[in-house]
Fold:
Amino acid sequence: MRTAGFALSLAAGTVILAAQAPQFSNSVRAFISVDAPVVALTHVRIVDGTGGPARPDQTLIIRNGTIDEIGAASSVQTPAGATVLDLTGKSVMPGIVMLHEHLYYPTGPGVYGQLGESFVRLYLAGGVTTMRTAGNVNGFMDLKLKKLIDEGQQPGPAIDSTAPYLNGPSTFLQMRDLKDADDARRQVAYWADMGATSFKAYMAITRDELRAAVDEAHKRGLKVTGHLCSVTYAEAADIGIDDLEHGFMAATDFVTDKQPDVCPGQGVGQRTIGALDENGEPFRALVRKLVDRHVALTSTLTVFETLTPGRPMPPGLDVLVPELRQQFEQNYDRTTQNQESIFKALFPKGMALERAFARAGGLLVAGTDPTGGGGVIPGYSNQRQLELLVEEGFTPLEAIKIGTLNGATYLGREARIGTIARGKQADLVVVDGDPSTNIADVRKVQTVFKQGVGYDPEKLIASVRGKVGLW
Ligand SMILES: [Zn+2]
Structure:
């Protein structure tokens, strides 16, 4: 069915590669619920991702993977032969675009298990249609999965795949220790040649290594983000970094006796962040620098929530193998009992600082970071991140924009994805209810359209339930 339109184009002598749908494998087909050249979503509320008000009772026409028409249900004609979905009482929003995702999960002390195959299903089921893997301990897995997904051999979001971490000497078994700036440049060049489209600097990198890495990546039109510690946010902004992970939680700019190129310890930095005044001049000066240098900031509230006492159990734990579920539940109990935890004050402070950055005109993007002590479950946590942005002080419409258009803007793909508009790729999430007024409705995903093909979230989740941790 889907190739019919394409075959016609070929017959007419015009090859429209952009409209070519992948040839799906049978294993991918098992998760597809809507696949037709023309699909009409009728009587649906549209939350378009721009932050503008929701529009009730609309009709949206998808043709060969592209949004072909949008308008009031009373005025848009449903094309003959279209597959019609009456979405009365439901909403459609853009596919989620989040930027701190991983294809690994903490499985044992200091060990990250490679869970790419199950994670890409969970991300897609949660409404994620594009994601950046913000750091890679999988070697070639991110790249291979990206290719297989693009080819229709695996279900999953489009992946901006990050190369293995750029880090100095560390205790992480699954990271290489950079020797110097030339080494950093070589590592960037190698992985860019292998197809990586993004890079992540880590806590023990030096300024010289970061400078060389940024220079090499930028020469190739690629971006660098960082979970920093040894390098301050201000130093990284001056070097030309594109993005900073974890809001301000990883900033060591305010550590008074900070030695250049040395990480004073994550906790030392976080104590200064917890005591920071978001209206004070030191913080405002840093925000001005980041905004002036066009450095984006990635909010990863989901991972910090799992470290904060008194927070609800995170969603989606039943997908884990029992051992990993138990392991997280024990961590959760330990966190709950730790009333001295720095995160009690740091979590709300982190929210206030991120909000101030966004209000000052900075590009705030979102991600989930399925690391920490576990409990950050792909897909479920992307929805949770949107809820937490609302708790941070954004309206639901603003939170949805941060989780869709802002991510697309950072990736330079906002002309194709990130909002619902005529001519854009049909990456859409159909949810029951109205997330523009009740953000928790983003949990009620009915169908996820990626390039106009609808996936069934229930089937994707059922295929991994109770098994995540094994593959
Ligand atoms: Zn991470």
Residues 100, 102, 134-135, 369, 371 surround zinc ion (CB under 6 Å). Residues 1-19 have pLDDT under 50 and may be disordered. Residues 90 and 432 are 5 Å apart (CA to CA). The two ends are 33 Å apart (CA to CA).
